[in-house]
Specification:
59% helix; globular; 20 helices; alpha+beta
C-alpha cells in the first residue's frame, strides 16, 4: 500500500478514534492486518483478532462504505480502500452498537454457544466496553471518510442501503440450538418493563406500509435509531430475535390490511413469513427474512394502489410525498402527470375523494406529526419546513385533521389520535 496513502489512513484513524472511540483497523487485499489504532482486545467470541477481521472483510461492496451487523449484535463500518483505481484493502471501524444492548441479550449469546465461565466473564466485559453510536452519526462518518479519501460526496441514503446483515459464526463455536417459543417469554419480559422503541417511530413504520411507501420504509428500517434492543426471550438471542420479528410481522399485517390488502391474503402472507422466521438458524437470517416480509407487505399495498388509482394519480401521489418540504403547485402535478390542470383536479377528486390541495395538506400534517414526535424542531420551524408560512394557519389545519393543536399533540400524541377518531365517528 502506498506510503503516503497509508500515512493519511493512520492520521484519520487517530482523529476518528478521538471522535467515536471505535478501534480502527487497516486490512490489505489479502486479509492481513497492516495497522490498528488503538491496540485493544477483540471480541473473545472469535478465536483471535485476525480471524474476526478476516470474516468481516469478506464480501463487502467495492465502491460504497457498508455497515455490517453480525450474529453477535456488534456492528462494524467497512470502508473499501482504493489507490489509483486499484483495490488496496479495507478500513474497519468498530465494534459499536446502535442501541443499548441489555445484558440479558449478551447472556443469551453465552447460552447459545455454551461458553465456559472464563469465556463468559471475558465476553460480558468486552460488551460493556463497546461504544454506543447512533446510526445517523455512523452514516455521517461513512460519508465523511469516503469524501476525505476520494473527494467524492455520497448520499447518505446510498450508504444506508448498503447495510449488511451477515452470518459470522467462527467454526470452533458450536451451532446454535433452536428452541420452541415459550408462552412465558413475552410475559417475563414485559414484567421487567423493558423499553425497545419509540412508539412514534413505530407509527411512522406502520404509516409507510399502510401508504405503500417502499423507499421510505427501507430508509426507515436501516436509518432510524432504536434506543434499546428488546428482549423477548432470556434463554436465547436467536429466540428473542424470532419473537421480536413475529411481533413486527403482526403489526405489518394490520398496517397492510389498513392499506387495502385483502384480509385473507394478508393473513396468509403473515403465516408464510412467520414460518420463514421460525426456520432461520441465526439472528442475521432473522433480520434478512424480516426485511423481506416488510417489503412483501408494502409491495402488496402498492399493487392495490395501482389498481385503485390511475397511473396519473399515482404519479401525483409520489410527487407529493417526495416534495413535502417544497412548494407544490397544481401546474407541477399536472406537468408530472402530463394532464391539463383542470382535468387533473377533477380526476384527482374523483379517485381520492379530496382535492389536490387537501391531499397535500393531509400529507404535510402526517409529516408534521412525525416531526413533532421524533425531532427537537420547534413548532414554528416545523410549520416553515412544511410550507405553512403562517403558524396560526398551520395550527388551524393541524387541528382540523388531528383534532388537537400541535402544542397539545407534542404533549400527548395518542390523545390527538383519539380526538380525530371521535370527530370522524360523529361526522
Amino acid at each position: 500500500m502506498n506510503t503516503e496513502f497509508l500515512s493519511l489512513l493512520r492520521f484519520m484513524m487517530k482523529m476518528l478514534y478521538v471522535e467515536y472511540h471505535m478501534p480502527m483497523y487497516i486490512m490489505d487485499i489479502n486479509g492481513e492486518m497492516i495497522d490498528e489504532y488503538p491496540i485493544q482486545p477483540f471480541n473473545p467470541l472469535y478465536t483471535d483478532k485476525l480471524q474476526g477481521l478476516d470474516l468481516l472483510t469478506a464480501q463487502i461492496p467495492d465502491d460504497y462504505p457498508a455497515v455490517k451487523a453480525t450474529n453477535f449484535l456488534e456492528q462494524y463500518l467497512m470502508i473499501p480502500l482504493h489507490h489509483n483505481n486499484v483495490r488496496q484493502g479495507t478500513l474497519v471501524a468498530g465494534p459499536f452498537f446502535h442501541a443499548i444492548v441489555p445484558e440479558e441479550l449478551v447472556k443469551g449469546i453465552i447460552r447459545d454457544y455454551h461458553l465456559t465461565f472464563r469465556q463468559q466473564d471475558n465476553v460480558l466485559e468486552f460488551y460493556r466496553r463497546v461504544p454506543l453510536i447512533s446510526k445517523e452519526r455512523i452514516y455521517n462518518a461513512a460519508v465523511m471518510i469516503h469524501y476525505m479519501l476520494y473527494q467524492v460526496q455520497l448520499d447518505i441514503a446510498e450508504v444506508i442501503q448498503h447495510t449488511l446483515y451477515i452470518d459470522i459464526v467462527p467454526s470452533d463455536l458450536p451451532a446454535v440450538p433452536d428452541e420452541p417459543p415459550s408462552p412465558y417469554d413475552n410475559y417475563e419480559q414485559h414484567s421487567q418493563t423493558s423499553y425497545h422503541q419509540n412508539p412514534e417511530m413505530e407509527k411512522v413504520f406502520l404509516q409507510y406500509i399502510r401508504e405503500g411507501r417502499k423507499e421510505d420504509l427501507v430508509k426507515w428500517e436501516l436509518g432510524f435509531p432504536t434506543e434499546k434492543l428488546g428482549v423477548l426471550s432470556k434463554k436465547s438471542l436467536l429466540r428473542s430475535e424470532k419473537n421480536l420479528a413475529i411481533c413486527s410481522i403482526t403489526l405489518a399485517t394490520r398496517a397492510a390490511m389498513d392499506g387495502g390488502v385483502n384480509a385473507e391474503i394478508a393473513y396468509t402472507l403473515s403465516d408464510l413469513h412467520i414460518q420463514a422466521i421460525e426456520e432461520c438458524q441465526t439472528p442475521a437470517e432473522v433480520k434478512i427474512a424480516l426485511q423481506k416480509c416488510h417489503t412483501d407487505f408494502v409491495d402488496r399495498v402498492l399493487e392495490g394502489q395501482r389498481k385503485r388509482y390511475s397511473e396519473e394519480i399515482n404519479i401525483c401521489r409520489n410527487y407529493i410525498f417526495n416534495h413535502l418540504y417544497e412548494p407544490i403547485h397544481l401546474h407541477q402535478l399536472a406537468a408530472a402527470a402530463q394532464l391539463n390542470a383542470d382535468y387533473l383536479s377533477q380526476v384527482f377528486r374523483r379517485e381520492t375523494g379530496v382535492s389536490p390541495v387537501m391531499y397535500i395538506q393531509q400529507a404535510r400534517i402526517e409529516e408534521a406529526k412525525r416531526l413533532i414526535g421524533l425531532s427537537a424542531h420547534s413548532l414554528a420551524e416545523i410549520a416553515a419546513m412544511l410550507q405553512f408560512h403562517d403558524q396560526s394557519y398551520f395550527t388551524k389545519i393541524f387541528k382540523k385533521y388531528v383534532g388537537i393543536t400541535p402544542k397539545q399533540y407534542r404533549k400527548n400524541p395518542t390523545g390527538g389520535e383519539r380526538a380525530a377518531l371521535i370527530a370522524h365517528q360523529m361526522a
